[in-house]
Amino acid sequence: MLQLRKTVQFLNKIIGIRTSLILSLFLFLFVSVGYSQQFFGQVYQHVHDEKCAALPMEKYIEEHVGVVGSSEYFESWMQGQLEERKKTPSILRSLEDEVRIIPVVVHIVHNGEDIGVGTNLPEVQILNQIRTLNEDFRRQNPDAANTSPIFRDVAADSRIEFVLAKQDPEGLPTSGIIRVQGTKNSYAAVSDAQLLSQFSYWPAEEYLNIWVAPVAGNVLGWASPPIADLPGLGSIVFPREIDGVYVTSSWFGEGGNANPSARGRTLTHEVGHFLGLRHIWGDGNCSVDDFVDDTPNQDGPNFVCRIDSPRFTCDSQDMTENYMDYTTDACMNIFTQGQVERFNVVLANSPRRSSLINNRATVEPELFPNNLSIDRLINPADLVCDLTIIPELLLRNRGENTITSARIEILLNGNLIETKDFDLNLALGDTTLVTFSQIVLSGSNDEFEANIIRVNDEDNPETVSKTVTSFPVLQPNIDLPYTFDFRDLDDLWIIRNPDDSITWEVGELNIDGNIQEVLQLRNYEYEAFNQLDFLISPQINLNEFPNTQVTFNMAYAPYNAQGFGDDLIVAISDDCGNTFLIDSAPYNKDRQFLQTSSPTLDFFIPSRENQFRREIVNLAPFADLGTVRIALINRNGYGNNIYIKDLEILDEEFYRYKVDLLELVTPSPVSTGDHEQETIRAVNTGNLPIDAFIFRRRLGNANPQSFIGRGIGLGPGDSLNINLPRGTLGSDISRLTYTVDFPNFDQNLDNSDDITRFILTNSNFTRVPFRQNFNNTVVISPWVVINPEGNNNNWQLTPLQSGESGSNLIRLENPEENNSYWMGSPIFDLSDQRQASLFFDFASGQVTDNTTLKVLASRNGGRTYSEVSSKSGSDLNTSQSSEANPNQRGDFERQFVNLTDYAGSENVRVAIVLENSNETNGTAFIDNIEFFLSANPEPVDPGLGNTIIYPNPARDVFNIVFNLQTFENVNIQITSPTGQLVHDVDYPNTLNQTYTFSSQLFSKGLFIVRITSNSITETRKLIIH
Predict the structure, then answer these.
(1) Domain residue spans in the chain?
(2) 532 with 501: CB under 8 angstroms?
(3) Active-site annotation holder among 58, 270, 615, 930
(4) Which is the most buried residue in 616, 694, 763, 951, by most CB within 10 A?
(5) pTM (2 decimals)?
(6) Which fold has domain 482-650?
(7) 50 is catalytic
(8) CA nearest 626: which of 575, 552, 565?
(9) Weakest mean pLDDT among 2-11, 205-214, 858-867
(10) Domain 372-474, CATH class in plain words
């Protein structure tokens, strides 16, 4: 194993494969972060616009297997094997002249249709596909004559044939076609491979698994390519469960429900990948090769058949008819001799390829007439939790005849206990459970045996597994709470070590200067890949303690190379520890989630407490199982050592990891969308420090992005800002959903939290001053409204029942609790101003004490806001009634907001926000919003369409105030007592301004002021003392 590690490190250097974390091809963006809580990274989501997802599959394999799974290493291995074959051609030729048969199992993953309908393909279509596959690989395809003359001399018969499997994994007859209903209408290329495998899978060492399902997008199929047989590697290869070929339903075979253009060549193409071929253009340009000497270089794929009008690239004619190009099915017709040579290398050497040839699944199984087997001794197993048991067996018919009767005897410690006859009706492959009379065990040194002695009235039939034996031992109980004592390993806990090799053991560590005992498993030195080792607890009574919590401190530093990593599993057994429910284990962590220290190439030995992390497993979801046992299970992946200490089993859920998302800080609900990052406020609401979590962001209905945060150091009760790179927002309202999962990589239920916010992007400008009375309009624009929490009820335009026709105002009714309701202004420029203020009329009936009306202001278009005004509770009540009457002006109060602090800024925006209201509150109303370029809380109002001069007579200053219906260009002329024109100035964009003049600029006496605009022509007297 140490030699293998050195080999991998060397290969990393010579091939240039990075051993740092590679972004997943799934929809997750895992980015390591530092202590600053910054989540940086780019979106990594490959868009499959190709027919074949070979490149994404290669990437996936490299990420999961590491350097030995990389295409670079495979090609290095392949070329070496080809060179070796050239040295010994005569020996190999005789073997390859024989036809090699590969068993195939076709998994039809359908949407629930009847056989022959939709994605549940008819059998004839499947048989047509297998026929086409064989014709293509044997060069017996009817269109072989269409091969271009220039390429006919290199065309080859691979002498490989495919047959639907004749035996299933149990050795029973099969059609080789499995039909199963899936859980989705369509499946994503590559990333849904694991899901498809979960529906149906046969061992990849014996069968070519072909999954046929509706695939989303333009991808027609993909395949897992073979991997080199690195000496000493053992079974470190691509995950066996998803090793095979995947084809979309409509392009599998021909006829039936297939696409009219389909001829079955998609499967031919993908099986070519499965057996070691690359795309003929090498997935590059003329400088990239497919590593086959007799296929010409191409600068890219061909999508159009060009046999009659050849395409020339890279100084040669393209082999458009090759099965590994992208041309239509009707165009493809050739594998070359060089490609077949690669098949031969793979089938002779590659793991899970060489074992396929001519194996038992290619021939009909041999069946005995009356073959009844005991498939499993269910009770008593080796571990029992009660001395009084009812023996139970699982029987299976493995013979030709229907099994109608059987006689079975059971013995305890060599003594015959019972002989029982059973009436059965088992066809080939059927199973049944049989039981016997209750027996009492001694609790130790017992031997139980069951024998089939008669089947279908035949004594001593020729059967498989007709005798089974167990050695049942009574298992101990514990009282809770329980603290693990290392002396209990001999009495209460069981170490199950199936390979009698490295397993759980007691060790001593110097941790922060103190010697401590630990449980350890030395994966660094463990050479049995994928081996499971169990540390099994005593019995735990969940009927008495339904909220049991298992907790321990764990330390693990991953081995610093891709493809090497261990798993730690805490699984539940409901049969006294004989079997464990690994698939539904409440705790199942790989190297990513296990990591408590930085990856290393060295033998990991923790020396500090901060290299350990408290792990929690809550057993409440399994309380209905009654008495259970748990097992700490190590799955070796040639990674590094795992250490466990401070193991406890508590009678309640004492420890808790939890992070809550408080608020979306940035972007704000109304902004220009030019924020540099997204910021979410989070708080640790658990009782343990949190150093890592998974964070997800989703924009609208798009696929979520996921991030890993590490080095967070968030103590109980502490909060932090989570910063993400800015996402792409829409031009109007966008929905952003954030989720925090797995705090400290805890996998218990109910420890996630999410927050959804709706934000509005708006960059509209308006000139100042401005007035908005909402009359004679059907829209609130240029103002905008948003309910960030739900995008539901909002400020709405509503007509008045009194006043002039077309009179409107803004209303908010039936607000939801804990929601906020924003009304945002357009952006305005105050860069040349010294003062500013906002007025609006507000009316409301009775409101709750925590209901708040705020006015927020921003200097940067809404990127950030500050509070400039706030009123709550009774201060908002403008009417003594529960509801304000919008038709009574006396129910309104004029609100003043001083914005002088924002004068001098050019991207000012204000927002009027009602918070923490609820349905018990009265309706709120807003009307007559007006912006002034002054800050007088009680401005002089000359009346709409009028102007006024005050004070008059004047001493120090005098003001000319306007209140015009719309913006106008105003001219002001002032004539002195002598008749001289001393002031003649135009004032553009006048609306509600107050123009102030110093009396010091004028002599004393009577002045004539002439004011002229589109709507005003007035002459006023002004006396200056």
Answers:
(1) 54-143+154-279+337-362, 372-474, 482-650, 659-754, 770-932, 946-1024
(2) no
(3) 270
(4) 616
(5) 0.72
(6) Jelly Rolls (2.60.120)
(7) no
(8) 575
(9) 2-11
(10) mainly beta
